[in-house]
Amino acid sequence: MNLLLNVQKNFPGFQLAADVTLTGDRVGVFGSSGSGKSTLVSMLAGFLKPDAGEIVLDDETLFSSSRKINVRSEQRRIAMVFQQHALFPHLNVRNNLLYGYSRCKAAHRSIHLDDIVPVLQLDELLDRNIGKLSGGQQQRVALGRAILANPRLLLMDEPLSALDDSLRFQIIPYLRSVSEQFGIPYLFISHSLVEMRLMTDSALVFEKGVMVEQVSSEQLARNRMGQSQVGYINLLRLGRSLPSAGLFAYPWGAGQLLLSVGSERDDSMAELSSKDIILFKQHPEAISARNLLQCSVRSLFNSGRKVGVELECDGNSLIAEVVQDAVNELSITPGCTIYAAIKASAFRMLPS
Amino acid sequence: MLLTESDLQAIWLTLRLATVVTAILLVVGTPVAWWLARSRSWFKGPIGAVVALPLVLPPSVLGFYLLLAMGPNGPVGWLTQTLEVGNLPFTFWGLVLASVFYSFPFMVQPLQSAFETVGDRPLEAAATLGASRLDTFFSVVVPLSLRGFMTASILTFAHTVGEFGVVLMIGGNIPGATRVASVQIYDHVEALEYASAHRMAAIMLIFSFLVLLALYAWRSEEGKKY
């Protein structure tokens, strides 16, 4: 994807301005409610006309105020996954899925129904009515419908915010399949740092209608760690687990981690918040946490009122967060040795 | 015999009138209702008020102005004479035109409400999936507004069947041409033929009740679908 976005839009009491070129296939748009994310998406999709500027996607001008170009939504080949699914209740699952596909030019049809159904696990649902589906199933159908339109860009506008926490993490692998399996670049809009971290490589950050930065998702997570309730989300690639004294042992770099949940997958992943890591200057004598790692401090960084401590443990990287007083008391400096304690229950497995 | 030939003629004329008016209003009222549901124009208020006028105007007032408009010196009369169609008052097509005006809000308002209920999201979703506006209207809006279409059609039909004042003003009382069921009942009462008036009135009462019953039953079934 190569997307030039240079747009301005004025509303009474609110102004949106963005001037950026986006490359990469997994780009996020991050901001709190009212920051202008949805306005930006509406202009990209063609629902809302910018007051001035230009939108160019892969060398095709979709909007230009100076050249008086404004390509209609249906001709942009930009599909969208909405927060509330926006499925057509009068059509069953199959006909919802085929709505965009049947309107797509034959030359653009590279993804077919048979490609989508197994990946999104829709086999059993094809002849069901939309009203009979759960929220997660509806979101999978909405995703399949958008992919089957064979777009050149997919907009995902807070697609997980209508789902409860456990369902969100079940849906994420399906959303990631858009780029990983079907090769469709996407723009993922969210106010969640966790979702940004899991779904995107880079992110545009909006505040009060102004694009304030364009950073990698990893950097965004570091920058926002101090203000976020969830802290920095460490993503850990783990292998298959083995039972160990009522817990599950996972190989992790040169060492191992004990988790309270097991996985039989070779490619299992877990997340760990920076808030759930406790640091010790010296090896504690006795501790209830089942994971005590000897690490070296790679670097320190400030994020709001917190200090991020980047650790190297058993050849892996971890970020913990502490307050400045703790840094001073423990004399944490780059290169020093430190012990990190993590409860087995602090990890959350991510669906693969 | 239960009904006279004149009664049957009046019933047949009434059904023809209501069918033609409903068909015309489906075609004319749908775009007006769509515009009223979607437009943010300043004109929306005044046009909405004009559409609703027949709901509050006495039928004789509407009938009077329509009679003037269709008369030889009125704009509609001038047009029909120019087109060599002749004058519309006291003809079946005069009744049709008057009924179209009189029943306009009964078609437009339920449709407008149904279109507003559809909201923006399905239209935006259809657009991002490559559907043109017309395609979206027929593939998304119409199916999602079926209840509105059914309600609007039944109300328009039933309202046209029950018209009295406007049809009397425009159509008069010509057997086989403009004498509809409501006028026939009026004639029976004028002639003190209460038994005949009862029979016609009962038929209209049962008809109206059955129409509304069917409408509510259908709406209830439709409501279970989504």
Q: Outline of this structure?
A:
The complex is a heterodimer of chains A (352) and B (226). With 352 residues, chain A is α+β, with helices and mostly antiparallel strands.
Q: Residue ranges of chain A: pLDDT <50 for 5 or more in a row?
A: none
- Principal-axis shape of chain A: globular
CATH superfamily of chain B: MetI-like
Strand content of chain B: under 5%
Number of helices of chain A: 9
Oligomer class: heterodimer
Order of helices and strands of chain B: HHHHHHHHHHH
Report the portion of residues of chain A in β strands: 35-45%
Radius of gyration of chain B: 20 Å
What does this protein structure show overall?
The complex is a heterodimer of chains A (352) and B (226). Chain A has 352 residues and is of the alpha+beta class. Chain A folds into two domains: 2-224, P-loop containing nucleotide triphosphate hydrolases (Rossmann fold); 233-350, RNA polymerase II/Efflux pump adaptor protein, barrel-sandwich hybrid domain (OB fold (Dihydrolipoamide Acetyltransferase, E2P), Beta Barrel), CATH 2.40.50. Chain A is 23% helix and 37% strand. Chain A contains nine helices and 22 strands. In chain A, the strands form five sheets. In chain A, strands 7-8-9-3-10-11 form a six-stranded mixed beta sheet, sandwiched between helices. Chain A has a five-stranded antiparallel beta sheet with strand order 2-1-4-5-6, with helices on one face. In chain A, helix 6 (165-180) links the parallel strand 8 and strand 9. The longest helix of chain A is centred in the middle third of the chain and has 16 residues, at 165-180. Chain A is globular and about 70 Å long. Chain B has helices at 5-38, 44-56, 59-70, 75-82, 92-118, 121-128, 133-144, 146-161, 165-171, 181-190, 194-223. Chain B contains eleven helices and no strands. Chain B is globular. Chain A binds chain B through residues 45-47, 72-80, 82, 84, 86-90, 99-100, 103-104, 129-131, 145-146, 149, 151, 155, and chain B through 120-122, 124-132, 135, 139-140, 143-144, 225-226.
